[in-house]
Design goal:
Helices cover 32% and strands 30% of the residues. It is built from 4 helices and 6 strands. It has a 4-stranded antiparallel sheet. The chain has a two-stranded antiparallel sheet with strand order 5-6. The longest helix is centred in the N-terminal third of the chain and has 16 residues.
């Protein structure tokens, strides 16, 4: 079984209201793309200006095609201009709950 692919974007935000509006618009574009599973916005309890956006995808190809779409180039990429320059793409290889553990095969080509 292949693991879910995750994108994690971090931001330092000065204008919470405007940023939240832009984030929701960008995620709305991604939500309409094939392979999209879910998205979350997190706010740091320790650093009030720090936000994290997580999007989950069926596989790395879904994510790459979605980010390369014309809609993303016009509506998501401008939002990403404010993103911190960090590694952003991860895949799930191992998962543990209170009752089980699962290992996943990589979908990323070496």
């Amino acid at each position: 079984m292949l693991g879910t692919f995750h994108s994690l974007w971090t931001f330092e935000v000065d204008d919470d209201s405007k940023w939240n509006e832009n984030a929701r618009e960008a995620l709305g574009i991604l939500q309409r793309q094939n392979g999209f599973i879910s998205a979350n916005i997190f706010h740091s309890a320790d650093e009030p200006q720090r936000y994290l956006v997580q999007s989950d995808w069926q596989d790395v190809g879904s994510y790459r095609r979605a980010m390369g779409s014309m809609d993303s180039k016009l509506g998501v990429w401008p939002f990403l201009v404010g993103m911190k320059d960090e590694i952003t793409a991860f895949e799930k290889l191992f998962s543990m709950t209170a009752d089980s553990t699962m290992e996943f095969e990589s979908s990323v080509d070496d």
